[in-house]
Structure formats: structure tokens, C-alpha cells
Design brief:
This protein is of the alpha/beta class. It folds into 3 domains: about 60 residues, Winged helix-like DNA-binding domain superfamily/Winged helix DNA-binding domain (Arc Repressor Mutant, subunit A, Orthogonal Bundle), CATH 1.10.10; about 120 residues, Response regulator (Rossmann fold), CATH 3.40.50.2300; about 130 residues, Response regulator (Rossmann fold, 3-Layer(aba) Sandwich). Helix content is about 40%, strand content about 15%. It has 12 helices and 13 strands. The strands form 4 sheets. It has a 6-stranded parallel β-sheet. Helix 6 links the parallel strand 5 and strand 6. The protein is elongated and about 80 Å long.
Length: about 350
């Protein structure tokens, strides 16, 4: 036990994890021996063995009978002359917003001579964690992450030692770079357009809810209502995963809105998919797209939005990717300025049918 009360084996383990994360020991290669650990840290063989056993249990090391202890994963190839290897972890690889960001990242990789390895987390925190481990085992020099919903892997991101840039959403507790569309401005500007067209407060529905992009969007929507001198009707502004609810639950919500003394004349959603689910529910209740005004706080599916005549927000998706990879490459090559969150401007576009007052 050390003076701080922390067991010696745990101090050694943490030091070795930092070495592994930094790429000082390559996947598939032999690891430092217990004897060398004893000599380096001045501890007994029992303490050294416990530290290594912990790393084996965590899946960071593997034992091969008769050969010794090795870093988990296949041997990492030597860096190519083409440049640094960087990883990109997307919450899912789907939709125009994601594809445009990926195009921007790929463009930056081509310009900098870097190589890109791509991971799809399929909306699953467990898969995201596994992808992060795989990326580190490959010896990547930096990582771009579009996080999955929630904060289940925040501790892993807090411990990263390689340069990391978050995109689209961020973790408030992680002091890394982040490049983001201005979700607050997207919601504020789109809501203001609807209000200036004579619509009162309108219901707003979301798909994902446990992300900073949604939290910023809710704040922008609320601020626009307050700046227009309106109280916030909470039954129209409940933050819930609308498209994950049962159809029966969604229909009950729709009926409660339509039964108000002043039924809403407009409806909004955080993205095009959730808007399409909402439109289906409205149609079941006898409300057609032509009967109301529609709004989407993104433009992730332009064809869907154009077909229903929705007001929408142009997102700087490709620019997010371009700025993110530029920031990451700069960090890899020695930029030591403090990490920063960069919010890129958005543009609300009114539907041709929306009569916006000056």
C-alpha cells in the first residue's frame, strides 16, 4: 500500500495502461516481463504478477503457453509512407448527414496523406467500446468520434491519450476538441421562422434524447419561444424518444395535442426520420401534411423534407468532417493549443408555403 492508500499493483496497472494506450507496446508483440516490472517499480514478483493478471483479465494482454505475455490484438503493421493512421467511429453509418461528414473527413485524409480506418458502432454503446479498443490496438495516431447516444463510454474517452475530436455531439466532462453544427441556433432559427409565420407554440418530437445536440436543440427551441413572449406549454415540449414509443402511445400523444382548446397548426421533429413517423401518426388521426406546417431541425433526408414541404435547417455536415480531420492532423503533428469546441453556423430554410412576416 502506498502513502496515498492506493495498492501498488493498481498504480502499476494504471501506468501500464497509459503505456499501452500511447502505443508504446504494439498489438501482437511481447510485453514487459514480471522480472522487468519488479526492477522498474521496485516491487515484489507477487505485486508485478497481480498487475499483469489484471491486464489479462481486462483483455489488454494475452498469455501464450510457453511463449510469454503479449499485447492483445494482431501485430500492428509498420506505418506506411502514406502517413498517419487515424480512426473514425460513427454512431451509425447511415443518412446524408453522416455520409457528408465522412466525405469531409476522407477529403482531409487524402490532402494530408493520412490513412483512415472506419468503425460502425451501430447505435450500441458496447460496440462503440469494442471499436475504441480495436482502434487503439491498431495503433492509430488519432480518433474522430461521432458518439452513440448516452454517456456509457464517457470514462473510456476521458482516459484516452491519443488526440481525439468529437463531432456532432460532445461529452461535457471530456476535455477534447469537438466540431459541431450549432444545434442551438438550428432550433432557435427554425422555431423563429415558424413563429413569424403566425404559428403559436408547436409540438416538437425527437428520436434520440440523451445527447448534447438534442439538449442544445431543446434550449434553442425554448429560447425562441421565450423571446417571442410565449410561455412554454410543457405538454408540447416533452423530451422523449418519440419514434421508439409504441404506436398506441404515440397516438395517445397526438390525440392529446389535437384535443387542446387551440390545436397546434404546426409540428416539428429533430430529424427527417422522426418527422416521417410523426406524419404517419398524424395521418392515422386524420391530419394530412397539407393541413399543417411542418418543420425539421436538420436536413438529413432532403427528399423526404421536400416531398412534405417542410421548413428545415441546412447543416454544415461536410464542413464538420473537414474541420475535424484538420484539427486531428494538427494535434497529431504537434499542435499543443488548448482543446476547443467549435460550433459551425447553420441556415434555416423556410418552406415555399410558409408565409414569414418580416
Amino acid at each position: 500500500m502506498t502513502a496515498s492508500g492506493e495498492p501498488k499493483y493498481l498504480i502499476i496497472k494504471k501506468a501500464l495502461v497509459r503505456e499501452l494506450r500511447a502505443g508504446n507496446y504494439l498489438p501482437g508483440h511481447s510485453f514487459i516481463t514480471e522480472r522487468e516490472l519488479c526492477r522498474s517499480f521496485g516491487v515484489s514478483r507477487i505485486t508485478a504478477a497481480r498487475a499483469i493478471n489484471e491486464l489479462v483479465s481486462d483483455g489488454l494482454l494475452v498469455r501464450r503457453q510457453g511463449s510469454g505475455t503479449f499485447v492483445a490484438g494482431p501485430p500492428t503493421p509498420e506505418p506506411s509512407a502514406a502517413g498517419d493512421l487515424v480512426a473514425c467511429l460513427f454512431h451509425e453509418i447511415h443518412g446524408q448527414h453522416v455520409m457528408e461528414m465522412l466525405a469531409g473527413i476522407e477529403k482531409g485524409c487524402a490532402e494530408s496523406g493520412s490513412n483512415l480506418v472506419l468503425f460502425d458502432s451501430a447505435l450500441q454503446p458496447e460496440r462503440e467500446a469494442a471499436n475504441l479498443r480495436r482502434a487503439l490496438q491498431l495503433g492509430v495516431k488519432g480518433i474522430i468520434v461521432y458518439p452513440v447516444e448516452g454517456f456509457g463510454n464517457v470514462a473510456a474517452f476521458e482516459q484516452l491519450t491519443v488526440p481525439t475530436v468529437l463531432i456532432d455531439r460532445y461529452y461535457p466532462s471530456v476535455a477534447s476538441d469537438a466540431v459541431l453544427p450549432d444545434s442551438f441556433a438550428a432550433a432557435y432559427d427554425a422555431t423563429t421562422l415558424m413563429l413569424r409565420a403566425g404559428h403559436g407554440q408547436f409540438p416538437l418530437v425527437w428520436g434520440e434524447v440523451n445527447t448534447t445536440s438534442v439538449q442544445d436543440g431543446v434550449a434553442g427551441y425554448s429560447r425562441a419561444l421565450l423571446d417571442a413572449g410565449l410561455d412554454i406549454a410543457t405538454d408540447l415540449a416533452v423530451v422523449r424518444p418519440y419514434d421508439s414509443l409504441s404506436q398506441r402511445s404515440r397516438q395517445a400523444i397526438i390525440q392529446s395535442w389535437l384535443a387542446r382548446d387551440e390545436p397546434p397548426t404546426a409540428f416539428a421533429a429533430g430529424n427527417a426520420y422522426t418527422l416521417s413517423v410523426l406524419l404517419g401518426d398524424l395521418a392515422t388521426s386524420g391530419v394530412q401534411p397539407s393541413d399543417v406546417a411542418l418543420c425539421c431541425f436538420s436536413n438529413d433526408n432532403p427528399d423526404t423534407l421536400a416531398a412534405v414541404g417542410a421548413t428545415y435547417v441546412e447543416m454544415p455536415s461536410r464542413q464538420v468532417g473537414e474541420v475535424a480531420i484538420q484539427r486531428l492532423i494538427a494535434r497529431i503533428r504537434g499542435d499543443r493549443r488548448s482543446p476547443a469546441r467549435t460550433f459551425l453556423p447553420v441556415r434555416a430554410v423556410a418552406s415555399p408555403a410558409l408565409q414569414v412576416k418580416a
